């Protein structure tokens, strides 16, 4: 059988425009919070009876790790069918998480990357899964007030990653005109997938861990770098 090429399908690909908006994962790509969420949930487990009904410490940790890329409330909801119980647990976890996350440190090159993007006339949006209170607390802890143009979280953008809502909201709120102009820098497969689903032409994964880097690539990252210093060269900024 002879296949006839479709002239539309074989047309030259559209040139990738220069990025105008950078959506940078915060925390994650820019800030190392370690296992802050897992530790916060386990703090609540050991300090109150709210979580002990869900099994042993190892059983609860297994649930947390299986849902590591979910928001804290979504993860807690998977442990209980009671919305009231879930919200009581979540309030306690948020307090514990704030204590944990305020020990976080910016990754090497984080501030330099933000400043490089701004010098290149990109609007910089910090995107996060953190609640409003915790992201504001972390921003103050790092002394990053005014460093970026916008700070967006799930309460402002709808569905969490891997849905594209946060990335698209970043583009729209920053005044971007085309998803191809959106640069996404991410540290988890879900964040990478969100950028891909949004239509970004430049989704950059960041990880020094070989296994995680492979997962970022499988999620669709256009490039994966081992540290933030490598982002400008592959992002075109």
From TrEMBL:
| Top-rank taxon, per record | Bacteria
Among the GO biological process terms of this entry, one is:
DNA repair
Q: Which GO terms describe its cellular component?
A: cytosol
Q: Which GO terms describe its molecular function?
A: phosphoglycolate phosphatase activity
Q: Which PANTHER family match?
A: PHOSPHOGLYCOLATE PHOSPHATASE
Q: What is this protein called?
A: HAD family hydrolase
Q: Which organism is it from?
A: Mycetocola reblochoni
